[in-house]
Amino acid sequence: MAIHFYDESPSPLGEQLARLRASSLLVRSKIPVVVWGEDALSIVHRVPTELFDQHLLVQDDRVSDAVAIICNELNYSPIDAANDDTWGDYKIYNPARPFAFEGTPTTLLQHNDLNVTYKTLEPDRILIHAASTFQYALQDLSRSCLNPSPPSPESAEVRFPTIAAFYDSLLDMMFEPPLKFVHFRSYQLLRTFVAYLTTYNVSDEGITKAGAPPGEFGLIPSCLQVLDEVKDENKPHLARPFLEMPVDRELVSLERSLIRQARLKDTGVVYTIPPLPYDPYKRSKGEISPTPTPKLLQQLRESRVHDKPLYDCIWKRWPRLLRGIRL
Question: What is the pTM of this model?
């Protein structure tokens, strides 16, 4: 199957207009908001994806206000997410099937007439998230962008994550989820979004690697630019798919936490490394999870020797990046 790359949004203007009604309403109501998920991928980052549940990230203390405004002005109502089939985990991995955003202020809204949304092109459902759930700096306007071709004047001020901010929100959610365990359905979706961004926006029609001397790695300029802009702790992990390298979730999680700890220490913030999210499927099988940290540290030492070209590539461009990992 051939892949088609786009120079502009594959989402038609009529679809954009319908999908952006809720966020436009929040902008008019002075509620800080960023459109996330498939809508952001398709509308501003040129990813040809179908649009499913809409995700809106709002200021933490305005979630209830956003819900009230959308439900009062548009044809939506809150529904109970506890037993939601779409956002419950796969039963084979976790029989309890917890909601992906359990324990957060996330509110799920559903259109009051699902028989008309296929005609009106409005989202069937909207998830209103607190921005902090995705560790998203909503007030930093350098981390968001406008639609270059808005479908209407009222939607022109709606903001979307930049490429770097999108990657950061995805990786932060993957490795520090709101739950204490891996939610496989959510994790799988986040990985898919990372792949979409890389393939359809950052890559050169699928190419991310560049020529390099023997024993070294090279990346195309757009990949290096993104790595420059994402958080320090997310650089090594993001470099791996760019370089088509395998990823070990537990090792990368520990590596990322150590780098984040060092980055925040430089700003005077004390960051305590949280326990690694455990694998509920492995736990149900009686396997020890998570792997003890000393064992992971040893594995990380060994992987750094094995993946020397990766770390050389990282060190050359960001020489102080890995200073927090004293191996």
Answer: 0.96
